[in-house]
């Protein structure tokens, strides 16, 4: 048996562990009784350590070295697989086991603390645990940076979005940041000149919301033989290979947030369900990174499902589901679902103001990791940034720097992928429109097959065989270009 | 750190793996989409192999040897823990890894085949896979028998019910077997002389059945902070430490089977939820074995919940839940829920005829393991046994030797624990009645606290600190005595 084949077997075992963790994590958020939380944490930690050991033990290192000599005998996918194995191995071996464990304990403790502290608007109560998390993440950034030849923050970014660096992000965010204030201002002016949208008349029974969500998921291409839709406090796409589980939360008085959430997660799920069948359990078969992943959710949620064509398709479905009402007219849905309004909360932000939330977090987390920003100064810096970028006055830390779970959970380097994803989505949609001239007509007819096939060829089925820039360039003809995103925003929100 | 302490850490990791497998198994039966079955099988196999490796690797063997010298410094529970570690280790090391894997693959394949073959009443279609399972189980019995100094069948028994042997079972089953035919005959005669029970008038909405089940679970002492009730095709008690999950299946036309199933599984769950808190993740903190486990489910389902006292408690609850009807009168419930009738299907059998089903399977599986019975002759032997013991004519293999999943699943040596459990339940209930003179009055008032406390002291909280015979003797003052079970049956069914 070749070293490469042995590595494939080893990474298959890793994939099984990761699948187990995926189901245990899904269960924790959707199903687990509260009293099991502590033990479940231990179970998840134990499996995580086992995966880490499998990835880092001497035999893996030796097999990776031995596989070098076999490189020429391998095909394109196998060679890319080896590259991805090396990447995972480099990340994992860069960090000593006790630091991995400390970081896991810190973020578990801090997440629990955060839930209470946010409820009580008590940043100083959160600070000690958050400091612990930050310290461990800085150490991880340092260690991985040294191993990978990256700055600490770039090394953290690389965990979520392989290959992405500050040098790549900075000019892109600068271009968006320069254009955004005027764009937001003009969009709101135009919006203010139009009549207010007719309000929707609830309640909207949860069973009906769920049925509509499932109907749309099916129409778009979600495979319920290999996936589920459930309820959790924080919507996510998780589960395991061949078992992709998305969640939402319902509000009887507002169907739109659950519905748009379901469509968002469906975009993620299509990516997971469309990964290359022959390499599902291998690194090369995994989704390429979080910015491309987010591009898939936002392509469905924002590019497709907030388009005029989709809203014309949705309008009669809403009438069928909840009974006819004037607010369900497509034009009114557009006014309602594409409302621009600078606000406090990132997850509630519209497509136009969203990047401002991200750019602020990006700047702050870079400074926290570099040591330029102390946690004691985070609330003021956050509030100041909100005031300057969106003109929004933050009334308390609960709706300010404590609103997101990411930092308590140790996810430094994750935020930028949301906006990179939004830009990638715009660029992919432009390319898809070029390749499929009847795309909008299909969407209006509720036919998504051609689009999903195109995405499958261009993105989903590529797994990690190419790096993100290569996937974008092959699919769209060029590198990630923020002006395409800005054009999309101008076209949609300024009617330019 | 002492060798013993290192062993405790090691077995804690094993417990986490086992918890993970418990949740993955629960999910597989209740939640998993069908298309995930194959990958889930691989995930479960991978974790099982990891657990097996952890238990059998050299370091474990060495630590167990080193811990011998520390024995004197250990307390009673620690010493018992070490004994149980050795037992698990002996079972696991007795079987080579490739045989473990072959047995797992055989039973996985055979279970799938069985579902179809039973549907098609096709024993010859099942036979090749069942032969594969039987061969691997005979090999396992052989290997474990040699390592443990037991006969192959005793070694298989020992997996489910440590310490139980044919020598122990044979005279007990002989006593039951000798008394049963007359008892069944007389019970049916008496039954025939009474009027037929008034039929229940459905439908019984599933939501109401579920609410009633949960209410009774809560009353009896099930802790929903550390457990759940869900739906599966085959009811079971599973899940993980601090997360005990029972399942049932509902029939709109008959609430009693789901309800009695829920009460049965609640008995299992009380055992799991009552295990010793300080040793939850250690071998000594585990439930002692399947016959004691079954004694707890049958004590609740049969001894308590089919008693006159309980039926007087249940009667008004049924009226509240489903609306008043004459069939809910306690006397009628008794006639309905304690009906004796020799039948084809073990899981539908009443308390009096049930042991006959078990004794037949016990005789057949002993003969299959010893090689005295070839699979080709199994259907005829099964049908012949049913005719002789219960006077029942088996019309087809689907309702004959193919009715149970146990053999296809490789569970040879499991069946006897059902009847040993029934006898143990009768003996424990007799002892509880002695210790708690007001027990029946409490049950009639829906108060189960004193009984559950008694069970917690006598059984649940003992974990595996004592062997099964010791637990029974301490709790009841003597060894397992089948005449107590026969007396119970006579009292309840013959009004002797």
From TrEMBL, chains A, B:
<dbReference type="InterPro" id="IPR001333">
    <property type="entry name" value="Peptidase_M32_Taq"/>
</dbReference>
<comment type="function">
    <text>Broad specificity carboxypetidase that releases amino acids sequentially from the C-terminus, including neutral, aromatic, polar and basic residues.</text>
</comment>
<dbReference type="GO" id="GO:0004180">
    <property type="term" value="F:carboxypeptidase activity"/>
</dbReference>
<keyword id="KW-0378">Hydrolase</keyword>
<keyword id="KW-0479">Metal-binding</keyword>
<protein>
    <recommendedName>
        <fullName>Metal-dependent carboxypeptidase</fullName>
        <ecNumber>3.4.17.19</ecNumber>
    </recommendedName>
</protein>
<keyword id="KW-0121">Carboxypeptidase</keyword>
<dbReference type="Pfam" id="PF02074">
    <property type="entry name" value="Peptidase_M32"/>
</dbReference>
<keyword id="KW-0482">Metalloprotease</keyword>
<keyword id="KW-0645">Protease</keyword>
<comment type="similarity">
    <text>Belongs to the peptidase M32 family.</text>
</comment>
